[in-house]
């Protein structure tokens, strides 16, 4: 019997030299809520197998808060931040200890990397984290990453490890992102309902328009399926293929595809094809990680020109702006609805804008006759087709939103 060839994204995942694997809390815990050593060992078996096959693997693991519950006598995941942080503090070191002893079965060393959003938002920190990962991988260490929950505050939290995993995948130059959860694939509706069917291939984001997202079934995680889709779109939008599969199928999800055999590799789960070629670090950082210094409101025509025709943003299409940015700073570009639709490096100081917004270039003095944001300095912010506010960009903190008493300038 001849076996059929796997899809291109599956083969890309199977052939990736550097892979980021993310596992959710629900896949590491018992039904009572504590860490489940057997499930953790199953995951480690799969990661060690992939490393033995010649890949570099970065593991993004949730589970710190879940692991800290029982030592603190907490019956369920607490709602308040301070208790979550205390649980994470206790749980993270239990988790790290468990990973260290489980990987030791394969003579593999783990390195713990705890990140806050600052480590990705600030460019110098981003480079520093990149260097650290590079060194760990060169030493043959398996980096085990989590959010630094103990110090992250409500304002600076990543929100969830799905998003963190996509950012880390780009940061380490991974060729694949594997999201492991307690569900075996993406479904077109709530997987607990009988009429829902699995979606095995996502060639592009338009497929997701018909996917229904049920509220997360897990009591221990924070992400839910919506955040997994946002993560998948973040990675595919940067040129990285994604596989979403069950942690119970970790071995099959991390299977390798030999260069000369198109029939072997990850057969399980849902494969997401990359949308583009790999994005440059500069534009990826701009889209997903940059903290903006202000925001600029666009009229409908400018939104179409900038997003639809990839044109530069000219003063004529601007209705208002907030913030005290300088030329070179990052600004959010807002649709007339107020939604962030793009982000760019601004070409003017905020002080220059009141005199030029709403006017065409020929009307302006020579030194001001250039785009407010040049097309090469601009990226669209994905709003995850049909998933509304789960788009990553709208979750990035905006300095202008935080500034109390920040002024707004409106063109009339
Ligand atoms: N369309 C869907 N397809 C698959 N799973 C879905 C869908 N909608 C909601 N879910 C739920 O999302 C859950 C996974 O999210 P979550 O519990 O946060 O996982 P994790 O702890 O792995 O991050 C699954 O248990 C599943 O019930
Ligand atoms: N950083 C937290 C997990 C946050 C999170 O995203 O959880 P999950 O949705 O289970 O991946 C922890 O270790 O408990």
UniProtKB/TrEMBL annotation:
This is Glutamate 5-kinase. GO terms for cellular component: cytosol. PROSITE patterns: GLUTAMATE_5_KINASE, PUA. InterPro entries: AceGlu_kinase-like_sf (IPR036393), Asp/Glu/Uridylate_kinase (IPR001048), G5K_ProB (IPR041739), Glu/AcGlu_kinase (IPR001057), Glu_5kinase (IPR011529), Glu_5kinase/COase_Synthase (IPR005715), Glutamate_5-kinase_CS (IPR019797), PUA (IPR002478). It is an enzyme of class 2 (transferase). NCBIfam families: proB. ATP binds at residues 22, 181-182, 222-228. Keywords: Amino-acid biosynthesis, ATP-binding, Cytoplasm, Kinase, Nucleotide-binding, Proline biosynthesis, Transferase. Residues 389-412 are annotated as: Disordered. Catalyzes the transfer of a phosphate group to glutamate to form L-glutamate 5-phosphate. CDD domains: AAK_G5K_ProB (cd04242), PUA_G5K (cd21157). One of its GO terms (biological process) is L-proline biosynthetic process. It comes from Nakamurella multipartita (strain ATCC 700099 / DSM 44233 / CIP 104796 / JCM 9543 / NBRC 105858 / Y-104). GO terms for molecular function: ATP binding; glutamate 5-kinase activity; RNA binding.
């Amino acid at each position: 019997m001849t076996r059929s060839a796997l899809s291109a994204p599956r083969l890309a995942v199977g052939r990736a030299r550097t892979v980021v694997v993310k596992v959710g809390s629900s896949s590491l815990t018992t039904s009572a809520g504590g860490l489940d050593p057997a499930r953790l060992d199953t995951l480690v078996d799969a990661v060690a197998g992939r490393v033995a096959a010649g890949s570099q693997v970065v593991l993004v693991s949730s589970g710190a808060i879940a692991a800290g519950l029982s030592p603190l006598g907490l019956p369920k995941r607490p709602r308040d931040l301070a208790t979550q942080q205390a649980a994470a503090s206790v749980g993270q070191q239990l988790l790290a200890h468990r990973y260290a002893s489980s990987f030791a079965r394969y003579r593999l060393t783990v390195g713990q990397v705890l990140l806050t959003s600052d480590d990705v938002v600030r460019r110098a920190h981003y480079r520093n984290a990149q260097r650290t990962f590079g060194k760990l991988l060169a030493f043959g260490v398996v980096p085990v990453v989590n959010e630094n929950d103990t110090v992250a505050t409500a304002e600076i939290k990543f929100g969830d490890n799905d998003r963190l995993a996509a950012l880390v995948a780009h940061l380490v130059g991974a060729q694949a992102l594997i999201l492991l959860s307690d569900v075996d694939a993406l479904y077109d509706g709530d997987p607990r309902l009988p009429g829902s069917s699995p979606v095995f291939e996502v060639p592009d984001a338009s497929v997701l328009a018909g996917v229904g997202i049920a509220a997360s079934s897990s009591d221990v995680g924070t992400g839910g399926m919506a955040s997994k889709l946002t993560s998948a779109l973040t990675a595919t939008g940067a040129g990285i293929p994604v596989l979403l599969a069950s942690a119970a199928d970790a071995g099959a999800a991390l299977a390798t595809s030999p260069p000369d055999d198109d029939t072997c590799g990850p057969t399980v789960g849902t494969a997401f094809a990359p949308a583009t070629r790999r994005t440059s670090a500069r534009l990826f950082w701009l889209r997903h990680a940059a903290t903006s210094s202000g925001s600029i409101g666009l009229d409908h025509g400018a939104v179409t020109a900038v997003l639809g025709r990839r044109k530069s943003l000219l003063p004529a299409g601007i209705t208002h702006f907030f913030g005290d940015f300088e030329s070179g700073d990052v600004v959010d570009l807002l649709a007339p609805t107020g939604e962030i639709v793009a982000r760019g490096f601004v070409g003017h100081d905020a002080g220059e804008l009141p005199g030029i917004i709403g006017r065409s270039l020929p009307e302006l003095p020579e030194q001001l006759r250039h785009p407010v944001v040049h097309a090469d300095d601009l990226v669209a912010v994905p709003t995850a087709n049909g998933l509304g506010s789960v788009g990553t960009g709208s979750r990035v903190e905006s300095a202008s939103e935080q500034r109390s008493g920040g002024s707004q300038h409106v063109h009339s």
